[in-house]
């Protein structure tokens, strides 16, 4: 079980007078792999952006606890939060067309001070030897041209997730990780994420509309609607909640 947690107290965010996030009291990361679900526009992505410092809250406190250390990350910027080991995969895929697959992976494993060393890794074979973790991901995920660029939407998405995992985060927030990925790739992504949660103590929160994935992968689920956390519990508890069914799922889906 992970030692890492994010807590939010009285966190509020409004756009043009409309409250899109109103989190009274929330703890994330107590249960290994957790899910954050809710209807479109519920405020899930906004919540992740508030935590990672992409946007700032109007009020409230956000704390990050990692291995006994307490960090007040309210109002902290994106890079400062990422340096603490709190990393987020992207809902919208990034443009990797100017950086090859291997180079972008390598950039995740070298420390900033070592970046000039990149020049030493001129040979592809040498680069691969240098990082067993990269080899492992290349083996598992079979890019169409690993020595070239990630071109399809699926490959870009995959590369984004792998780069985040190579950073060895303490806490990983995943925003709709499976959109655009075929089922076999989705299964493999979830396998490596669960492995990192189990073996490295990484905490994970996954936003997904793919409820089968949520029920199968997550140990604990937070349900959000209208900017607020409305229900929390095990997959069984959330799946059978009348309120969750009414607000989110068709009666037949549960
Ligand atoms: N920059 C912004 N300016 C104005 N309104 C915004 C902004 N960002 C988000 N919103 C609004 O905040 C609400 C919550 O959006 P958010 O993207 O967080 O929802 P979500 O739960 O992630 O939805 P989805 O499941 O569709 O991704 C929506 O009504 C959205 O239109």
UniProtKB/TrEMBL annotation:
One of its GO terms (molecular function) is ATP hydrolysis activity. GO terms for cellular component: plasma membrane. Residues 6-251 form the ABC transporter domain. Gene3D superfamilies: P-loop containing nucleotide triphosphate hydrolases. Keywords: ATP-binding, Nucleotide-binding, Transport. It comes from the Bacteria. Belongs to the ABC transporter superfamily. This is ABC transporter domain-containing protein. It comes from Devosia riboflavina.
